[in-house]
Amino acid sequence: MTLAQTTRWNNPALLDHLIRIRQPWDRLTRRIVRSVLSRYLPKLSPTIVEIGAGGGQLREWLPPELAAATTHTEPSEPFVEAFRQRHPQAKVVAADAEKLPFADGSVSGVLALCVLDTLPDLATVRNELHRLLRPGGVVIHILDLATSPDSLFPELIAGGELPLTNFARDPGLLAVLTDRQKALFPVADDFDEILAIRWDAFTQFVGMLATAQQPIVADLGPYANLHRPGGFDPDRLALEFMAASADPDRLRALNKALLSLTLSAHQLGREWPLRAISSRKHLRTRLRAAFTAEHGFSVEFAGAVLAWEPASLGEPLPEGAKVLLRHAGRTMARSALGIPALPVEAVEGFTPVPPPREGVRATSVEVFVARHVGGAGNP
User: Fold this and answer.
1) Above 80 in pLDDT, residue 66?
2) What's the domain range around 101?
3) What CATH number is given to the structural domain containing 126?
4) Do 252 and 287 lie in a common domain?
5) How far apart are CA 192 and CA 331, in angstroms?
6) Stretch 331-359: mean pLDDT, rounded?
7) Domain end residue (candidates: 229, 256, 277)
8) How far apart are CA 187 and CA 103, in angstroms?
9) Are residues 255 and 170 in the same domain?
10) How confident is the model at residue 375 (pLDDT cuts 50, 70, 90)?
């Protein structure tokens, strides 16, 4: 793990920030989490381990009987201390997911909240989870926030691409573009949060503009100095990408600069190959490839689960909005719900209840479930 990642995952202020952004959606997220656990966890003699427990957010969503059967593990000592202060009755130990203090075949379920998308060595963790799970036990991963770029960004960069924020789906910018300009962008939906461009095309063009002292370069934020020797720090780029994505004003300014850069490149006849990427879809693919029969697992579910409630139960909707949706780490006002997700009622075994056409608050949670089916845990 790099210095930047180590610093990020040891800062207790991050835990307070995550509590604040989760709080408006707590009731809906808890329903999804409990429904998934009820459906997929073994029913008899539950012995549960959580990896990467942070400050204990997942514990607050667990039913009391499961919370009592759960041992929480967390590699960060500051996070362990924060966990103990918030949940003094809980069992929590300092341990890395690559080396857990449990006997072979002693655990019926492994839970994780926003963990598997941050791991640089997923294969080693998978093998460790296979070791401690008994046959029929499950790994259940919950992702209620934006996907961490910790695994996606290195893959893109190693392949010669640079990840950008998806300025092509910024509604405020799209409103002022002509149809001809919009046609320059790749096909994408609201939840393809990343655009990737060839590294050499981007840095060569920005370098040319910097030499000409074009002011647009200064507006490119984390991308402004990538053309300079030594100007690239992959961990800082990932951190600044996440920070910009979480700040609407900062994201709008960065998207505007990237849009202007793209239009300038096309006007000058530069090669500017862009493609849209959903980090959640990337994570699904990565997890499916890791938890295969070859490694002693069977994937039982990988996708988004959706829950909704009348807007009157939560914060009022923005003026003119019919739906307030939290999906893929983003909250947005929409005229209709319309996202690809499994209704939580289907997980619970009921017929889904169609939401009304307006006055709805909804959230989705990315869920991954893989069951131990025996066999070798190592490739």
Assistant:
1) yes
2) 3-143+280-308+361-372
3) 3.40.50.150
4) no
5) 14
6) 91
7) 277
8) 49
9) yes
10) low
What's the confidence (pLDDT) of residue 377? Answer: 54
What integer pLDDT is reported at residue 107 of this predicted model? 97
Residues 201 and 262 sit within 8 Å (Cβ to Cβ)? no
- In Å, how far are 26, 324, 338, 360, 374 from 314, measured between CA atoms? 10, 10, 20, 10, 45
Q: Would you say residue 219 lies in a domain?
A: yes
Q: Is the pLDDT of residue 291 over 90?
A: yes
Are 19 and 53 contained in the same domain? yes
Q: Which among 278, 248, 309 is positioned nearest to 29, based on CA atoms?
A: 309
Residues 121 and 228 grouped into a single domain? no
pLDDT in tens, 111-135: 999 999 998 899 999 999 999 999 9
pLDDT score for 269: 94
- The predicted model gives 9-33 an average pLDDT of 89
Percent of the chain with pLDDT strictly greater than 70 = 95
166-192: average pLDDT: 83
User: What pLDDT does residue 14 have?
Assistant: 83
Q: What's the number of domains the chain is made of? A: 2
Give the tokens for residue 102. Answer: 């449990």
* Mean of pLDDT values over 352-369: 93
